[in-house]
Amino acid sequence: MTRSSAPCSTANVADLTPTPTLTRRGWTLSVLAWFLLCLVQAPPLTVADTKHDLVADPWGFLHQVLSPWTDIFPLGQLQNQAYGYLFPHGLFFALLSPLPDWLTQRLWWTLLLTLAFAGTVKLLEATGTGSRTSRLIAAVLYALSPRILTTLGAISSEAWPVALVPWILLPLVRILATDAPPPRRVATAALSSTVAVLCLGAVNAVATAAAVLPALVWWLVAGVGRSGQRRTAWRFMAWWAPAMVLACFWWIGPLLILGRYSPPFTDYIESAGITTHWFSLGEILRGTTSWTPFLSDERQAGAALVSEPVFVAGTLIVALLGLLGLLRLRDSHRTAWLMMLATGLLIFGLAGPFSPVAEDVRSFLDGAGAPLRNLHKFDALVRLPLIVGVAHLLSRVRVPIQRAQWAHPERHRPVVVVLTVGLLLGVVTAPAWSGRLVPVDGYRSVPTYWSEAAAWLNNPENGASASRTMILPRAASARQNWGNTRDEPAQALLDVPWVVRDAVPLVPPEAIRGLDGVQREFDTGTASPTLAAALTQQGVGFLLVRSDLTSAADTPGARLVLRTLRTSPGFTEEASFGDGDIHIFRVGEDAATTAPRTIHVDDLDVVAGGAEVLPRLAAADGAARDRILVGDAAAAGLTGDLAGTPVTVTDTPALREHSFGTVTSPDSAIRAPSDPWRGMNPVRDYPSVGTLTEVRESGGHILASSAADDPTSLDGADTLSSVSAAVDDDPTTAWYPASGSPVNQSLTVSLDEPVQQLRLTAQAQGTSLRLQVTTSREGQTVASTTMQVSVGRETTVSLPPGSADQVELRITGAWGRAGLSEFSLTAPDGTDVTPRRDIVVPPLTDGSSPGRWVLGQEIAEGTMRRTVTVPDGGTEVTVTSADCGVDVLIDGVAVPCGATLALAGGDHEVRSTARWVELRTPASESSTGGSGDRIVVTPTAVNSGRQARLDVDGQSVDLEPVTVNGWQQGWLVPASWSAVASLTDEDLAAAVTVDFPATTTYRAWLAAGLAAALVLLGAWLFLLLSSRGGYQRDRERAPRPTGAVGTATAALAGAAVAWILAGIPGILVAAVTVGALQIPHRWIRGTWIVLVSGGLATVLFTRGPWGAGGLSNSYAGDSLTAQLLLVVCLSAVVAAPRADRAFHQRDTARRAGSSTSE
């Protein structure tokens, strides 16, 4: 690789020997180059990078994060790691806030890239790796590695720790490369490393830990693991460990507070099945383990790196060059770099697609290990060793300086090599210099109508400050037709409390359910007489309706919302801004408030259900009442106070599968417990205190290969197209397969008992279809036949003779979208043996009696079917519904609105196409009353960290919390307290003070953390300024031969990595590779093995990149062959040097023997 085909003199070739540093001019030019690179990224557009507040209102944001709890944000909530922006991220943007927003972003990116580049150059110099040119190339490859290219423009807070990894490692490498350094130099090195840790910030604690881990590996291997440096290593740790405490102290306390009081939102965001799905060895080596670009093209550079073959090939070739460089590395640091690489491979490989323990690891990551779920943050453990390998390998490249050589590259191999390296560098960095660092949909500025609307709401004269403003319509993220801010534009503009239903609100799950219940009312597009009252009860006094969202925001749009508001009573349009882009509505005549108010326990409606049912109950009652869920009453110890109070029984919560992160069509139809769970999250839906309404199967089980009500499908959930729709006796609904061709999709019907000579009746919907019907018994096929099923009429066939307990209905032909509207199976005697799927409302089990049943289908079902259980003895019920123009069927009998009928004890089926149905018993009018207890409630989400104190007559007492209206924070005031007996409801509410006591600890910890950071910086500066002389790396130590113990340890470690990456096949190919290297043949050498195996793997990955749109049937990452080829490369890197030494020793001995014999 390094030789020309013709001899070249030193006059013809510039020998690029290592130099200590770039010159000052060189560093200046490098900074300028990085700035220019950032400057050409879509100027002058601001992009959605990490946090909108950083560019919109950085000083206000920094002031806001000084409190952990905020009543301003949706429903009141803890701010998720917002303290981590205090330094350096937030401070940087605050100090540069006078500059244009887009320019501040580019300067931040410049700083990040410069640090990544310079740190890598310094680190390579400290290890003596590479030539001056190869170090610069390697540093560029690190600064523009796939990890940084993917995250820089969209979430630079994740790229920032990667940029600082070399700076954390550098002082340790330098001090361990020095023989017997004085204690002061050791202390200076330790503090220098921890100052870099201090600069990491704390936007994400796991990213910070990931940035520190390479230094810890180096300390263990190159320090503690080497007897000559063990003393220095422990001296370093004696300074490093306490200094780390000083560097991280400021965010450890706030993180503990967040962990103590935050809702379990990690259950509702990305699952381990998603975050680790692309952990094949090829992606690990390339550095494309971040899952987001595989699912979204918002991050342009990242999407290109995972889907375009030229970038797949280029990045994998760079990784293979790094492996070749590590193979040829012979200095004393080789073991440390290999151990760092092995650590990274183990972390990624444990959850990889071919790991034998992947399922257990993913279960851990979805449970106790949820904070570690995004393992892609550990990329630096793999990236740095590979970059070192590239620097070492390219140090052999010499750059010809004669013009004649460049004029005839075919005659001069160095010219070809240099051109090839340059081409490769250009390809792998193309996403940067082609302007794709920024995410899509940048914007010049937030339109003025947003600031005008916010100013109107912030104006005290308009009254919005006393209540909460709801932003409509709901949207997963804020992607407007003028640009993408990701965070709500109003977030940095509003001083008044506000709420929006976005992808995953950081509030308790029952509060999200309550928010969803309200949102569904806006989607009807029809008048809702009690909607205004329901919003007032939730503290919502104003609505901000925006019309500038795009479909990419995952939103139903504003049209239906505006129609609902303009036809419903209680809403007054107060103002509009822009060209109808924003409308502001006032809610109700009585002003809503977020201040505490008092309610009476005796007036509470006790509800068996979830918080999402409250708008339905308001509609049924004609007014909004305060309610308490059965589970919340029990948790607060109010069971005795409410004993005998009739319970409102609802069909909520229901067993559904929810697609977390989406807001349009996110819920499946109601499921049976045995139905497959197609999502990857650790929970199916937002948990609720209520008992689940679910499908009760009888007579057998029906399993679909797929169903259109699957919320994880591309088109979202169509709840009219579930498995139950094929057996619900409703011709308007049908089972449809998930999006895509219906051919080869199937329903498998398992019967409780085998039946002879079945008859099948079926009816299609959409288009006619052809079914292949296969019967089987105990897993053995009995017979098969085909039938043509038409739309709109039933088709009946007798299935081939034979006893069967399972029938498969497989679609083998269809002309367009086709589904099964209905099917049934009958025995020869005419008995219907079709499995039933009845939706059963759970009966009360605590001894209380139902006062009424309120059943609904806010999530459309076509015909609502519910089975309710009437207690023994029976009862009379009066039937009403949302639409009295249609009858309600009870046990198949039509019952008009307002009619009363007697129901015997036991199960009864209720059917209706109305949105809700109420069955009211005479007991609903009764109430035990008399407790006199009161509750002070605020329309904010419950949180165990909030406390209320009652101050009366100079006495203070802490109140016990209770949840009201499904999610609102309340505190119980017993009537037995004589001090409150004379207080009116208004006076009682005014006497209660609500706070978040952990705020004091939070701020004290931040202050102490600031002091600790200043102590660290002061000590570091003192040692740095008082130290004499600069750093000088001592003479390189020759690597020592590995002993028997070391060889055995390396073999075990290599086998463990191979097993983790590819299981038993991985161990086998690793063993074969190591064995082959023992063969004394010039072509069976490590270099050739890496080139051949790596080349074949590159071909596979280039031919099978992740497909456009997130789908590919030939994705190479799923190929065990590609995985094993790269395991071969890794095995060669580890084993080849030892095999090469043995080969050379045998060759030398052979030559010596030959010369002696002569």
UniProtKB/TrEMBL annotation:
It comes from the Bacteria. GO terms for molecular function: transferase activity. The keyword DNA damage does not apply. The keyword Transmembrane applies. Residues 34-683 form the Alpha-(1->3)-arabinofuranosyltransferase N-terminal GT-C domain. The chain crosses the membrane at residues 107-124, 136-155, 195-221, 233-252, 310-329, 336-355, 375-394, 415-434, 1004-1025, 1045-1077, 1083-1103. Pfam families: GT-C_AftD. Residues 658-683 are annotated as: Disordered. Keywords: Membrane, Transferase, Transmembrane, Transmembrane helix. This is Arabinofuranosyltransferase D. It comes from Corynebacterium terpenotabidum Y-11.
